Amino acid sequence: QRIVVRDLASRLGVSAAELIKQLMRQNVMATITQEIPFEVAAAVAERFGFTVQRPKSSEERFLEELQQAARQPAQLVPRPPVVTIMGHVDHGKTTLLDVIRQTRVAAQEYGGITQHIGAYQVETQGRLITFLDTPGHEAFTAMRARGAQVTDIAVLVVAADDGVMPQTIEAINHARAAEVPIIVAINKIDKPTANPDRVKQQLSEHGLVPEEWGGETVMVPVSALRKEGIDELLEMILLVADLRELRAPVDRPASGIVVEAQLDRGRGPVATVLIKEGVLKVGDPVIVGAVPGRVRALMDDKGQQRQEAGPSTPIVVLGLQDVPQPGDLLMVTPDEETARRIAEERAQRQRAEQLRPTARMTLESLSRMAAEGEARDLHIVLKADVQGSLEALQQALEQLSGDQVRVNVIHAAVGAISEADVNLAASSGAVIIGFNVRPDANARRAAEREQIDVRTYRIIYEVVDDVKAAMQGLLKPRI
Ligand code: GDP
Question: What are the residue boundaries of the Tr-type G domain, all occurrences included (predicted)?
C-alpha cells in the first residue's frame, strides 16, 4: 500500500510543502508527486496528531476467521502416529525403514508400486502408522527450527554390537528437546557379537531405562536384516501412540506440513505434505508458505490418485505455483484470491525480514532481560574437545541455576560445533558454548543465518563468569 504525497497532504488537511518538510525531518526525501509506503505515511500522519488504523492484511483476516472457527467444538478423530527413525550412522536406520515398508505395504492390494515421496504409511493390526522417510535427527531438528514439528514418536535404532555412540546421544537429546517419546530398537541382534544388555546398560546411563528394569522406556530387540522383531516394534509404536491419544479435528479447513518438495519436469512443482488437521481435497485453494495454488491432484505413497487425504496422511500435492520449502505450513483458504494475496504479503514480509535481525536468545539479551528483572531460563548447547572438560563445564554451569534463572544444558557432546547443533539451538532458543572447539564452516553459515549466539572459550572460569554475569544482568557487550 502506497500513497502519493499530494493525496496524503490533502487528506491530512496540510499543505504539501508542510508535509514534505515533516517528511524531511524523518529523513524521507520525497517530491509532491512521489508515492510513499504506508509505514512512512502512517508515521508522518501521527506527527500531525492523527491516530492511524492499519488496515488488516489478508493474512490477518484469514487467521482470525480460522481462530473463530477453531473455537467451535470440533469433531476429533483418532489419527495414526507419525514416526521418525533416529540413531548413529550404520546402526541400521535405512535398512529398518526399508524392511518395514516392504513387509507391510501391500502394494498388490492397490495394484500400485511404492513411491518414495518422503513418508509412507503401513498397516498393522488394522491400524496405520506413518513413517518419515528421512532418518536421523538432523532433518527432524531442521524442521523444528522452522517451527514445524510433525513427529509423534522417535524410534532410536542402536546396533547391539556397537552400542551407544555419539549420534545416539545426540538423537536422544534432540528428541528430548522436542518432548517426543523414544522407543528403542536394539538392532542387529543376529550378530554373534550382539550384546543387548550392554546397550540397555549404556542407555540407562543416559536416562533411558528399560521397562524390565523398572524404567519407562520400551526397548524392542530386532534384526532389520533378518526381518525379525518388526511386528513387535510396530505393536509397541501403536501402544505408545495410544498413551498419547493422538487425535485431530476433521471438520476444519485442512492444514499440513511440507516434508519434501521439488520441481518435476512433467508435473511442475510437487510437494509431499503431511496432513495435520482437516481433510485436504482435490480442488482446494491453498497457501503453502509463500506459495499459492489450487490442488490439481493428490497422489499417495503407492502412486495412486486420491480425491482426499486426512490427518497424518502423507500426500503428494500437485498444482502449486512454485516449490515450497520443507517445514512450510499448507493451509486451505476460502478461495484462490485469498491464497494469492496472502502469498504476496508473505513474500513482501520475507523480503523485509531479510533486512531486519530477529530477536534470538543471546547471553547479551539474557543480561538485558535480567537487568530489567525479566530473566528467562537459559538453554545451552555445550561442545568441548574432551569428555573431562565437558563434564566439568556442564556441572559448573548447571550449578549456576538459581530461583530467577535456571541453566539447562540441553545437549552436551565432544566434538566441533555442527550445523545440527545450530539447528537444535535455533529450535530450542538456546545459546551455543564451545570449549576448545570451533564451529565448522556449515555451522558458521547456519549460525549467521539463524542468528545464534555461538561463544567459544579456552578457559573454564571465563565461561562460568560470562554466564553468571549474563544471569545477573551484568554482562558487558562484546566488542
Ligand atoms: P544407517 O546408516 O543407520 O541408515 O544404516 P544402514 O541401514 O545403512 O545399515 C548399515 C549396515 O548395517 C548395512 O550394511 C546393513 O546391511 C547392516 N545392517 C542393518 N541392519 C542389520 C541387522 O539387523 N543385522 C545385521 N547383521 N546387519 C544389519
Answer: 78-247
